Amino acid sequence: MTKISKLTLGLVASGVTALMSTAAFAGTCPAEKVMADAQKPGATMPKGVDDKVIGSIDLAKEGPKLKEHKLRLRRLVVQPGGVVPWHSHGERPAIIYIVSGTIVEYRSTCAVPIVHKAGEVAEEIHTTSHWWKNTSNRPAVLLSSDILHDADHDKHAM
Q1: pLDDT (tens digit, 9 = 90+) per residue, 28-69?
Q2: C-alpha span between 13 and 6 (Å, rounded)
Q3: Residue 73: CB partners within 8 Å, gap ≥ 6?
Q4: CA atoms within 13 A on the CB side of 6
Q5: How many whole angstroms from its chain centre is CA 114?
Q6: Cα separations in angstroms, 153 against 9, 91, 158
Q7: Are 89 and 132 in contact (CB under 8 A)?
Q8: With contact defined as beta carbons under 8 Å apart, do 92 and 148 qualify?
Q9: Largest distance between two CA atoms of the chain
Q10: Given CA atoms 91, 19, 75, 7 in this order, what sign does their dihedral have?
Q11: How far is CA 46 from the centre of its chain?
């Protein structure tokens, strides 16, 4: 990787950190609605989603030395009616920043849908299985940062 590429990735990471430091961890499941297997698997195929990898870092060559893992930053644009299909974060922790719009999450551990609005952050950890749908009439733009294990990555999974 060139010095310019490293500088660009560093600036992107700094920008995401700055955005997230001012973001609210709102849009969470109400305590009384948290339960196991609260939502069953939903949509299985993406619909109306533009998923673009903005940058990635091979973690085998960096501090944690995680062989076959990447730190990845993506920009997703979910059109009205668009769906990010059911998936699990058992092996892929992620943080989502909602840049603009609103989007609804259907999480396995919450009995009610969770509405996420611009400026909010959603944590996706090992217990998270879910799907998302844009129920509004405007595109929802998300930044997704995750740790991806290359060997387990399904090109059709979100």
Answers
A1: 888 999 998 888 888 889 999 999 999 998 888 887 788 888
A2: 10
A3: 12, 13, 16, 53, 54, 55, 56, 143, 144, 145
A4: 6
A5: 14
A6: 22, 10, 9
A7: no
A8: yes
A9: 50
A10: negative
A11: 14
| Long-range residue pairs from 118-121, CB within 8 A, at least 24 positions apart, any chain | 119/22, 119/23, 119/24, 120/23, 120/24, 120/25, 120/26, 120/27, 121/20, 121/23, 121/24, 121/25, 121/95, 121/96, 121/97
Q: Which domains does the chain have, with CATH numbers?
A: 3-152 (2.60.120.10)
For residue 126, give every residue at least 6 positions away whose Cβ sits within 8 Å of its Cβ, in sequence order, or none. 89, 90, 91, 93
Percent of the chain whose pLDDT exceeds 70 = 78
Q: What six digits make up the tokens of 158?
A: 């979100």
Tell me the per-residue pLDDT of 56-105, one tens digit each, with 9 for 90 and over: 988 888 877 888 888 999 999 999 999 999 998 888 899 999 999 999 99
- 101: tokens are 């719009």
